[in-house]
Design goal:
Blueprint: E1 5-12, E2 39-40, E3 57-59, E4 74-79, E5 88-93, E6 101-107, E7 110-117, E8 131-134, E9 143-149, H1 174-177, E10 180-184, E11 191-194, E12 199-202, E13 206-211, E14 215-220, E15 223-224, E16 231-236, E17 243-253, E18 256-259, E19 263-267, H2 276-294
Parallel strand pairs: 12-19
Antiparallel strand pairs: 1-7, 1-8, 2-10, 3-9, 4-5, 4-9, 6-7, 10-13, 11-12, 13-16, 14-15, 14-17, 17-18, 17-19
Organism: Spiroplasma melliferum
Protein name: Alp606
Keywords: Signal
Length: 295
């Protein structure tokens, strides 16, 4: 049986496509002063809050190839055609469509489609389609984002604003993320964000500085941290084995309580454990010093 691969694409009947450039405005954070030799690795952090409706929506990256198999799950794609100011959101189910190419939505002469392709290098397409923009090759110009629904039953399709941002999740992340800084102590170390911005893996000593007046409590590995005016400093050092720490932040915003989901901080760097021989040398040295003082 031939294996099929599903590719999410936008197609147009025109011979050429203008490629308007869109820029996502980065979230502004109130950052604390950082030592000259440290490295800010906050970029990529995208906090999730418990109890917010979007918790069952998982933001996807094209490199994970979520459409490489049929899973019968619901998805939403935020996209536009020729008009870069006309963002659209479309929900669809990843099922075994009978058509080789399933059109999901359209905007003028642009079509959003799932295309099933076999093991051959070049996938089939109707001759009338001149240009195809594949999700995995788009730089954010035509595809804003793609989400998968991990809840039960058919979800309600969210609403978006004119910029393609979902608005009825009803959350302003600025109030939650402002003043939170993750920084490597040494500039030559590396850090990687995963799990949609909720898991940080580092290979060196790391400082977590929180300076946010909306923060009410901070928990590190289940232990409540001492706070003063919404400020907390957490220092994460390498241990003898890789360790995953849990950071939870609780907020009070205009009288409403919020709690973040677990923020994983993985310390991948390791230090060599002190050997028994080294410990015995230290003990012997102490004993020798004490004996010499008694003489």
């Amino acid at each position: 049986m031939k294996k099929l691969l599903s590719i999410l694409t936008i197609s147009t009947l025109t011979a050429s496509i203008p490629a308007p450039l869109l820029a996502n405005t980065p979230l502004t954070r109130n950052k604390r002063d950082v030592e000259a030799n440290s490295k800010d690795v906050t970029n990529g952090f995208d906090i999730r809050i418990k109890g917010i409706e979007y918790k069952n929506w998982e933001k996807l990256e094209a490199v994970t190839k979520p459409f490489s198999k049929i899973d019968d799950k619901w998805y939403i794609a935020i996209w536009h055609g020729k008009d870069s100011n006309n963002w659209q959101i479309k929900s669809f189910q990843n099922i075994n469509y009978s058509d080789r190419r399933k059109v999901l939505d359209s905007q003028g002469n642009y079509e959003l489609a799932l295309t099933r392709v076999g093991t051959i290098k070049h996938y089939w397409q109707p001759r009338s389609i001149r240009d195809i923009i594949s999700w995995n090759k788009d730089n954010g110009t035509y595809f804003k984002s793609v989400y998968r629904w991990n809840g039960v039953n058919k979800p309600i399709t969210p609403k978006i604003d004119n910029n393609g941002n979902i608005i009825n999740w009803n959350i302003d992340k600025t109030k939650f993320q402002q003043g939170i800084l993750f920084a490597l102590v040494e500039n030559n170390k590396t850090a990687t964000w995963s799990n949609a911005g909720m898991r940080l893996t580092v290979d060196g000593e790391t400082n977590i500085n929180i300076n946010n007046s909306n923060v009410e409590e901070v928990y590190w590995d289940g232990a409540k941290q001492n706070m003063l005016g919404g400020k907390v400093n957490i220092n994460v050092k390498p241990e003898t084995s890789e360790k995953t720490h849990k950071l939870v932040i609780k907020y009070d915003i205009n009288g409403t309580k919020y709690t973040s989901e677990d923020i994983d901080v993985v310390m991948a760097a390791k230090i060599e454990p002190t050997t028994i021989v080294e410990q015995q040398k230290v003990i012997s040295l102490i004993i020798t010093i004490k004996l010499s003082r008694q003489k």
